[in-house]
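Re: folding output
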Amino acid sequence: MGARVIMSAHGVSVKVQNEASFRELDVFDATCPLVTKVHAEVKKLSKQGYEIIMIGHSGHPEVEGTMGQLEREIHLVEDAVQAKNVKVKSPKKLSYVTQTTLSADDTAEIIKTLKKRFPSIIGPKVSDICYATQNRQDAVKLMAKEVDLVLVVGSPTSSNSNRLREVAEKYGARAYLIDGAEDLDPSWLKNTFSVGITAGASAPESLVQKLLQAVKVLGASSVRRLPGAQEHIRFPLPKSLSK
């Protein structure tokens, strides 16, 4: 009672929220507004009588939080194969939402499969994919074509960081996901003429700079910043923190 708890940016289920309230905890809700948008979509669609498909990765905290917004079942689809086989009760009253940190390319394939099976299915008016995630994926697509190796700074448990590594490999570069400069293996740079560095959406800039310095120590002769989308969106602090 009275202890402080922080709800992560991934969001939490209604059950967790209710439990925190029951215990009279001091709650700081740090849920990303983009995730909150998905939660609102799920609740609205459910009230309108739609059966819901969640496109995302099993076990990911964001997926668990979104699916935990309702007591009724939400179908989880992780890939196009599952999209071909998912069984629904109301194919003419069907909708989908997505995890915000997915690969846009993979999501497009899943949505295409669902629309082919269920022509009446509806989705969000604006993509659920996080703009920061999308911008990084678009930048990596361009970078991977120009370099031999891509280093992604991010946690192995970070969905959007893993997607960056996958995108880099898909577009022709060797790629490794590392926590920081201490995980850099010098052998990766042998016979490597150009290296690209990027980072997951929540990785601190300081980690990127430390990795950049480590690559310089190992022989990088010049650094070039590639052009990319400028991000100007700023989210306010949770009300409980801004007071």
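--- second protein (sequence, then structure) ---
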Amino acid sequence: MTKLVEIENVTVSYREDIALKNVSLGIEEGTFLAVIGPNGAGKTTLLTVINGLGRILSGSVRVFGISLTLRNIGRIRKDIGYIPQNSNIDPRAPISVREVVSIGRTGKIGLFRRQSYKDKKIVEGAMGLVSIDDLADRPIGHLSGGEQQKVAIARALAQQPRILLLDEPTANLDIKSQKELTDLIDRIYKENKLTMVFVTHILSHIPTSCKEAVLMKKGKIVWTGKIGSALQESTLSDLYDYPIEIVDR
């Protein structure tokens, strides 16, 4: 299969802090990959590297077979959808759900370009896929946290990305919203076989369709393989430096 992401011996720093240390990773097209690890492990930084951000001190990155350079970042990021942990939307923001989702088309058509009929149909389709059609005209700031995350997913899907990056999308949501969002992400993968990278430190939030895993600790990838093998008591105890007991319910 085609490797969409090829990271070779990459080191990333933020000022004096080393966030990633000689990290190497390949992600094949159609993979649903979970990136698991404690807070501060470098999980979000790994996403920023794939997304063309982060100060790379050494190593190389290729996305879609293209070397990640300043010259190529814009071209690469057109095909990468990114869903952050928090949207931090001002409840007074005078922008509707449909307008937010429409922003997903900007990377494809360019700033200040009028959307075509096709673009508008793509936006409507993205809202339909995540079942927020009925919220289309609502102000984005009036929605719940779970609804706002669905809008963020629709915005990313409207971009028609080849890779979808999800940075702890279920964080700070109530239990019902966590389950709804996890099921939604699961369905999107099953229906589209979109290459997805799902960052989390909460194991119960990992969608069932996710079959591959990367374990990170202190800026390094310490394990890669099938997720069933990753979710073992000894492996997780080493990862979190804490005795983990897995209980079947």
